[in-house]
Design brief:
Blueprint: H1 3-23, H2 27-30, H3 39-42, H4 46-62, H5 69-90, H6 105-119, H7 130-142, H8 153-166, H9 173-185, E1 187-189, E2 192-193, H10 204-219, H11 230-248, H12 270-277, H13 287-302
Antiparallel strand pairs: 1-2
Length: 325
């Protein structure tokens, strides 16, 4: 099968249950709440988690230009669907109005939501009705009451400010300054940053740190002279980390299950995919080389038995259904 079509089919297989249900105001009704323990806690934010991560992943494709044929029809269809998701999940009168400010976890997920909206901003943010835009702004602003931890959470606060800045509302340069300058001090060497003052061996440089730090540096580069030169250095470090990531993929598509949050599955290679998307791969590394490696890895993970339930919802697991992960 054509590789691009395989990627598209895989993305929509994961995303479709979430966006279809949320667009129709039945996400909370239909989506399984799967967790190892403390279901009542997980229910408070699992729906925002699903929506935020889904839109973050779909954003670059929704904003894609120059497509044609069936894929372009699908892009237009899902762009409209996601705009309806934004409406349903930010309207206080909707049955799928989500939790943006109670507890600590919503800061994580609203940041992924904001990241996805910025990635697909021409199709998503630019085409929102004024009423929906106001509701979205209110939800983003409400997350400011959550105090970020002294780790990758500071990037989440900054990402929310980036979305508010793009939407034309007051944004807090101090939250951005704190995130960018602090992460400069957390650089551990050889292309990787610490998740806080100490280095942790996991995939958080790909799940969160490198993609958000790079995009924040790029977005805010003209907002303050102190931030202007950050992107060049960040891109150099990111290329090194991309080289490390590519070498972690085995010839059979396997990769080491190291660290926490392994249920993100091939989200562990978001950074490598983004570097290829932005034509920022290390010297000597072909885009085709990366595409083949990522495709083998996606196949290995997503085609494992038990990855989806009988209704098409993604199960918890690293390879198949593994709730303990």
């Amino acid at each position: 099968m054509n590789t691009r079509m395989y990627w598209l089919k895989t993305m929509l297989k994961i995303a479709d249950p979430v966006v279809q249900a949320a667009a129709e105001g039945r996400l909370k009704q239909d989506m399984p709440v799967e967790c190892k323990a403390q279901r009542e806690v997980r229910e408070r934010f699992t729906h925002l988690e699903a929506v935020g991560r889904t839109i973050c992943g779909m954003g670059p494709w929704l904003a894609c230009k120059g497509l044609s044929g069936e894929e372009e029809k699908q892009r237009i269809f899902y762009s409209e669907l996601v705009r309806r998701v934004i409406d349903r999940t930010t309207d206080p009168k909707s049955p799928d109005f989500l939790n943006y400010c109670e507890g600590r976890q919503p800061l994580v997920d609203v940041a992924f939501y904001a990241h996805g909206l910025l990635r697909g901003r021409e199709e998503l943010l630019d085409k929102l009705e004024p009423r929906v835009k106001e509701n979205l702004i209110h939800c983003l602003e409400s997350s400011r009451k959550i105090k970020p931890g002294y780790n990758n959470f500071i990037l989440f606060s900054a990402m929310v400010e980036a979305a508010l800045c793009y939407l034309g509302r007051w944004w807090d340069p101090m939250r951005v300054e704190y995130a960018l300058k602090t992460y400069e001090t957390w650089y551990a060497g050889d292309g990787v940053y610490g998740d806080g003052p100490e280095y942790c061996w996991n995939y958080y440089n790909s799940y969160v740190i490198q993609p958000m730090f790079m995009d924040l540096c790029h977005f805010f580069r003209d907002k303050d002279p102190d931030w202007k030169d950050m992107y060049g250095l960040a891109a150099e470090r990111a290329r090194r980390y991309a080289a490390i990531q590519e070498r972690l993929i085995g010839t059979d598509g396997s990769f080491p299950p190291v660290g926490r949050s392994l249920a993100y599955r091939f989200g562990a290679f978001q950074h490598l995919a983004q570097m290829s998307l932005e034509h920022n791969l290390p010297d000597g590394m072909d885009p085709a080389q990366v595409r083949c490696g990522l495709t083998a890895m996606i196949r290995k993970v997503v085609e494992a038995p038990g990855t989806f339930d009988e209704n098409g919802w993604l199960h918890i697991g690293f390879c198949g259904w593994q709730p303990d992960v």
